[in-house]
Design the sequence.
């Protein structure tokens, strides 16, 4: 009877081991990535976030998807995904979206440069170069405040730091012309000065949230900070470590990374309002995916102590895959918005898929090294 009792206790302990203790295997990571990517490609032309029409192929939503899809394509056996991405570029005639100054409409340019690096065809990046040359020659004179969406020609909302700066960094890398970097650094600093909270090492989504409290806590939107954190890695990838540009972004990145592991929820995800876990207990996978991506990237680059940070990444990844349906849909992606809100197990969005794929690409490298 005692043997049975002890066996039962051991079984209960094993069953109660939290998800973060599960071993992450590279092959399984890749399998999860392909499952999510294949589901999204199959459902690419569908509607999301309660919209009546599908997202335009050049919209920021899909631009973020392509960032993650490129990272899957770059992995062994990714030819299928390169082919799909190239078909998107051809359909869009390699042009950015229609709003000349709007950062959201520049996002797809990241994909064009990565496809150019793969295929070497200059026509893939020519329209993007022309578009940014116009912007640099005719810079917007709008203020850096969003002011109820009156000013969208500059980076007045933190999401923009994922959308446009990586394209400008790639422009300098591929053309050798530092004018793009000079413009990008100036505009990034303007946004940072406006939206960065040095006490919390997090970014406000836009100026409408500065000074406001929710449940007596400052409002820092998870996905908004995910855009910033993920964007920092994309920018740093284009500069040499030790360069003034790299060190500028690394400084912000390290401060955010330290803060993020302090506020991760016990379940592994990050709350939709980063400092307000109690009020927003629902999982949210787009912000969590971007944080997972950024933290795993830092471990792989040697910027973050793996003994400290890797358990947080593993915990987050195991949480994320638990929200993927058997068909490959990533659930609990908050719909399009600008603030903490709601998410559901049976609802997704293309940018969530992109963030998940980006996260998977770095988690794969991390556990393969391990």
Sequence:
């Amino acid at each position: 009877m005692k043997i049975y009792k002890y066996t039962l206790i051991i079984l209960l302990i094993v069953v109660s081991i939290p998800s973060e203790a599960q071993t992450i295997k590279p092959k399984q990571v890749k399998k999860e990535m392909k499952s999510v990517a294949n589901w999204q490609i199959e459902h690419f032309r569908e509607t999301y976030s309660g919209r009546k029409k599908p997202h335009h192929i050049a919209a920021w939503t899909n631009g973020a998807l392509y960032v993650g899809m490129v990272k899957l394509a770059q992995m062994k056996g990714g030819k299928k995904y390169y082919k799909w991405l190239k078909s998107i570029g051809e359909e869009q005639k390699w042009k950015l979206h229609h709003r000349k100054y709007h950062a959201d409409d520049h996002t797809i340019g990241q994909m064009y440069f990565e496809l150019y690096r793969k295929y070497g065809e200059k026509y893939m990046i020519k329209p993007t170069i022309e578009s940014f040359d116009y912007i640099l020659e005719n810079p917007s004179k709008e203020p850096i405040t969003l002011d109820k969406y009156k000013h969208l020609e500059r980076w007045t909302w933190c999401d923009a730091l994922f959308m446009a700066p990586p394209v400008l960094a790639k422009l300098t890398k591929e053309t050798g012309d530092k004018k793009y970097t000079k413009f990008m650094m100036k505009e990034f600093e303007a946004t940072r000065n406006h939206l960065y909270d040095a006490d919390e090492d997090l970014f406000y989504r836009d100026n409408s949230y500065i000074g406001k409290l929710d449940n007596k806590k400052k409002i820092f939107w998870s996905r908004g900070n995910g855009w910033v954190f993920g964007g920092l890695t994309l920018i740093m990838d284009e500069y040499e470590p030790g360069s003034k540009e790299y060190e500028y972004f690394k400084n912000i990145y390290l401060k955010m990374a330290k803060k993020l592991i302090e506020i991760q929820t016990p379940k592994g995800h990050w709350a939709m309002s980063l400092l307000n876990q109690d009020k927003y207990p629902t999982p949210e996978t787009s912000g969590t995916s971007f944080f997972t991506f950024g933290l795993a990237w830092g471990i792989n680059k040697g910027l973050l102590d793996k003994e400290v940070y890797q358990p947080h990444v593993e915990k987050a990844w195991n949480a994320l895959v638990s929200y993927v349906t058997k068909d490959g849909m990533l659930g609990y992606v908050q719909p399009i918005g600008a603030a903490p809100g709601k998410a559901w197990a049976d609802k997704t969005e293309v940018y969530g898929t992109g963030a998940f794929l980006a996260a998977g690409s770095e988690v794969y490298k991390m556990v393969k090294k391990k």
Q: What stands out?
A: The beta strands are 196-197, 202-203, 213-214, 217-218. Residues 1-20 have pLDDT under 50 and may be disordered. The radius of gyration is 20 Å.
